[in-house]
Amino acid sequence: MGFLYQAEKCRKNCGFYGNPAWHGYCSRCWIQQRQQAQPLTDGFRHHTGKLHIKPDVTEASQLLNRRDAFQSVTNYNVNSEQSTASLYQAGSVLHFSRPCLLSLARGDFSEFLKALRCLEAQPLLTRCNNFIQRMQEDETISVDKKAEEVQSFYQQITLYYPDHMSEERDRLLDNIEKLVMTRIYKSVFCLHSSQDEQKDLFLHKRIKSLSWVTPRMLQLPLAEGSQEEKNGISCSVTALIEMDSKRAPQDKLSCVSKACNYLYKSIQSCKMEPATADDLLSCLIYSTLKANPPRLWSNLEYITRFCNPKRLMAGECGYYFTNLCCAVSFIETLEASSLGLKQDEFKRLMQGSEVTTCVSGNGLSILQQIQKNKELLVELQHRQDTLFQKAKCLGKELEAWTRSVQVEIQEIVSRFPLDAKAPPESCV
Amino acid sequence: MAAGGGGGAGGSSSSKTYSFKVVLLGEGCVGKTSLVLRYCENKFNDKHITTLQASFLTKKLNIGGKRVNLAIWDTAGQERFHALGPIYYRDSNGAILVYDITDEDSFQKVKNWVKELRKMLGNEICLCIVGNKVDLEKERHVSVQEAEAYAESVGAKHYHTSAKQNKGIEELFLDLCKRMIETAQVDERAKGNGPSQSGGARRGVQIVDDEPQAQSAGGCCSG
Lengths: 428, 223
Description:
The complex is a heterodimer of chains A (428) and B (223).
Chain A: H1 27-37, H2 45-53, H3 56-69, H4 78-85, H5 98-104, H6 109-117, H7 122-137, H8 143-158, H9 166-188, H10 196-209, H11 227-242, H12 249-271, H13 277-291, H14 296-306, H15 309-314, H16 316-333, H17 343-356, H18 363-415, H19 422-427
Helix pairs in contact in A: 2-7, 7-9, 8-9, 10-14, 11-12, 11-13, 12-13, 12-14, 12-16, 13-16
Chain B: E1 17-26, H1 32-41, E2 56-63, E3 66-74, H2 85-89, E4 94-100, H3 104-121, E5 126-132, H4 144-153, E6 157-160, H5 169-192, H6 196-208, H7 210-222
Parallel strand pairs in B: 1-3, 1-4, 4-5, 5-6
Antiparallel strand pairs in B: 2-3
């Protein structure tokens, strides 16, 4: 017991001085500890939640100021508490033991949720819940501001892991992203107050008006009418449409990746060569035109705002997402020359499609069919008319012929009157 | 983008893994695809068939103890997609501009790309100008002096490669990685020296982080 009466640091080793009145914690860790013990009834909950969210830098600078204030001599026995104290790694952010970090970073989302409920991960869960609640309830914050906050929240999560555990860190971040975004989805996605809805409508109309674009105009690397083309395009169309039904940015992204992978497969089997960026992009443009995915603009905006930036900037999903952005940008700005058409031809097609926009999709081909049928009918009628005329002519000719035959017969009869009775008598 | 500096943002310890995004620019038939396939999978032409795609490839490197994850992004090079360039090369750390030494036009295209890249991304990005197909030296239409002088004038490095004969490609990527690491380190230092208060705070945190780092050393030895 020679250590008595010695200034002692907080049990969490956070850098502040502890106080025996707070069981050897500093005030801040003590509040945290109490909150952990009874998270729901604690009146400090909201307050401390906000404290946690403060970025690291300010906390550390506070540390410098507060050190003097806590220079009181404290009495605290290290040995008896060592085992529990070692549970907490030092640092001003939340710290967890290695097994806890590992269990949180398991790939499966449901396992992550289980790990999050364990005692040691409580502070993290509380922090997430507080954050989610604030994002859901505060309607005064704009979506962009919320995006900023979500991003800085991700940044803080990454601080739990040392550099050599970067893989685990990425996985935890994925899980956190899914947890947070699934729950705040409704309060940030395609809000009425934002311009997103109008842009969605604009893009939707634009794609509709381009329904006449053919694979040949886009120079798709797929053999026209082949099975690969049909399969690849229809699978990727389904995947693109599916994107709107997912909530977490990573799930939306994986729909985009799925779409691209279907396209890759059909390109490769048509060309017998690996697909290049030009191949992929032109196919993706065509699929997007065919799919006309619901709320496309909102989805793109949402992913850029709330996705883990690392995934979006450099990862494979990021590449596919970039291609989708390129496809949309191409569709928005597309002109006659980008499809290899002449100006007037392009105009005519655009106007033609405006009339038919209400039919959409297969409407164009149906209309073409109707037009063709009409032409056929007109021709048929014409042929029928001539047939009738010819038949009439024939009828007249026939009448004339019978008449002429009768006239001839009468003539002959009058020329050679038959005296049938006399000769037989003479003969006999 | 709320969180800036996603790509090559670096920590301070040497165990840090660098992630770099490199875009591949160039006209249709200059051999971009062959170049990158040769580098990442050591394949050329007939063996291509087994690979599904050559538009997004990755490679892991270890340069002087520094781990580097390289993501190579092919970009659509056709004229009709020209306007989409900025979407592709946003936040990239390096760019490889490929031309065909037998095709003067493809070299002009490279010049256009360089102008655009410098305009959009400034000097942050490491540029490599690559004359491909040196196996066709006899049909050369772009002179070595001209190309090298041009590269120097825009602060880029010039390389000669042949994807067919597997010449110069390893050197190209290795050199590029080294330059990107340098740029990232300069960036880090600039950030560290920025506001003096936060610098001090960071040092404070690092002292506390001692223990996990000891664990990292153990992990490295066993692995």
